[in-house]
Design goal:
eight-stranded mixed beta sheet; five-stranded antiparallel beta sheet; BirA Bifunctional Protein, domain 2; single chain; SH3 type barrels; 2 domains; alpha+beta; 257 residues; 24% helix
Length: 257
């Protein structure tokens, strides 16, 4: 079902249950879609997160992916994960009201009181006609959350808000995303995005753990640099991390009974 876009210049297409909104958006790109297209599903049968992890996708939550074509040089595409983060934080703040417990966890989650409320998945590919397609997938636990995860999870209804309907959240997200994409301006405004992201960063200035593909590091979360990499002060010196999983608290499976 097609509907009027909530922000000028963007289109929205709603699906019932689909395999993956990210896969659907990328398929549209390969078929020649011009981009600025939101794909929103009521449920997903093949939802996934980073590193191929399964993303639980029952009805009642928000599953949305934004397709952009040639948004910036490919080297700047990772910045869009931070653009999406600040936009989603803004949308959730509009639903919950000002709440210091709402925080951005590097690189792609939103926490509420250290429990996972939302996640993002950024993917890019060249289309057959040589265009650079970027898909930004976002999921929000609106009315339910998975019970068995490495970290605690939570949903908007459990937190307590009358704005727990995924359509309400999407309306706010689409408007915030359009605004922050304009601020980002193909990378020229990343400094402003970075500043806003750091203002709501989980664990900033505190000791955290980061699991990379090759090792696990502990240290103080100093900042993210101009490329969005996490800067960690460790006993062996400063570490600059391009990819990894951040633990601002102990994983649920390791927590004491």
């Amino acid at each position: 079902m097609r509907e009027p876009a909530p922000s000028a210049g963007f289109r929205v297409e709603r699906l019932g249950a689909g395999a993956s909104t990210n896969d659907e958006a990328m398929a549209r790109a390969r078929a020649g879609d011009p981009g600025h297209l939101w794909i929103v599903a009521e449920a997903q049968t093949g939802g996934r997160g980073r590193q191929g992890r399964v993303w639980s996708s029952p009805p009642g939550n928000l599953y949305a992916s934004l397709l952009l074509i040639d948004p910036a040089p490919p080297g700047r595409a990772p910045e869009l994960g931070f653009v999406a983060g600040v936009a989603l934080h803004e949308a959730l703040t509009a639903a919950l009201g000002p709440d210091d417990r709402l925080a951005l966890k590097w690189p792609n989650d939103i926490l509420h009181d250290d429990a996972k409320l939302s996640g993002m998945l950024l993917e890019g590919a060249l289309t057959p006609d040589g265009r650079f397609a970027v898909v930004i997938g976002m999921g929000v636990n609106c009315r339910s959350h998975p019970a068995t995860t490495p970290y605690r999870a939570v949903d908007l209804a459990e937190i307590g808000t009358t704005l727990a309907d995924p359509r309400d959240i999407f309306e706010r997200l689409a408007a915030a995303m359009a605004r922050w994409l304009a601020i980002w301006s193909a990378g020229e405004g990343f400094a402003a995005v970075r500043e806003r992201w750091l203002a709501h960063a989980a664990g900033l200035g505190r000791d955290i753990a980061v699991a990379t593909p090759t090792q696990k590091l502990h240290g103080r979360f100093e900042t993210i640099d101009a490329q969005g990499r996490l800067v960690l002060a460790t006993g062996a010196g400063r570490a600059v991390i391009e990819a990894g999983d951040v633990f601002v608290t102990a994983p649920a499976r390791l927590a004491p009974a």
